[in-house]
Amino acid sequence: MRRVVLSLLLPVVAWLPVPVRAQAPLTLGAAATTVLRVHPTVAAAEAAVARAESGERETRAALLPAVQLDASALRFEEPMVIAPLHGFDPTHPPRFDNTLYQGAASLSYTLFDGGARRARIARADRLTAAAEAGARAAPQALLSQLAQSYLRVLAARELVAAHQARVAAMASERSRAAQTFEQGRAARLVLLPESAIPRVLDQ
């Protein structure tokens, strides 16, 4: 339980200015606002949504045609034939040059794959929906844990205050009993703790 309280409340207290911590108690609303801003749970949920959406877009890209372009340039030390040579005609000699440029383009498209792409897209859609649901639930779960921890801290603080008040009352009563004993108006028995009185009476 202490781990939950420390993990949720300590980052909030650490981010608060020193005068605020010293002058005013931390309210639940302020704690909720600060936790939602600094706790990594919400950011991690949003990152999961972004990752799922990226995977979905990548999967849907398989439905589009694929275009590939290639280009190359070669530099020769000596002039080389740079045009297609289908035959040798002395009246039309082939072209020679030191540099050869080549290019190619290809287009491909899958007409039928047995439903594999549709299945992958459906899976990506479900992953995105699950990530979005997790992102919506993350702040709610965080606030629920914060509220429980906050109430436990308040209860513990009230318990400590009540204990301190009881100690102060007992100290005041003991001081009054000591004054009564010193004045000779009470026996020494009033200065003993309750657990020790039966033993004194037995003696």
Can you put this structure into words, describing what you see?
By secondary structure, the protein is an alpha+beta fold. The chain has helices at residues 2-15, 18-23, 28-38, 40-60, 116-182, 197-202; strands at 66-81, 96-108. A two-stranded antiparallel ribbon has the order 1-2. α1 (2-15) crosses α5 (116-182), α3 crosses α5 and α4 (40-60) runs antiparallel to α5. The radius of gyration is 41 Å and the shape is rod-shaped. It starts with a helix and ends with a helix. Residues 1-23 and 195-203 have low confidence and may be disordered.
What would a concise description of this structure say?
The chain has 203 residues and is α+β, with helices and mostly antiparallel strands.
Any descriptors?
203 residues, alpha+beta, two-stranded antiparallel ribbon, 6 helices, 62% helix
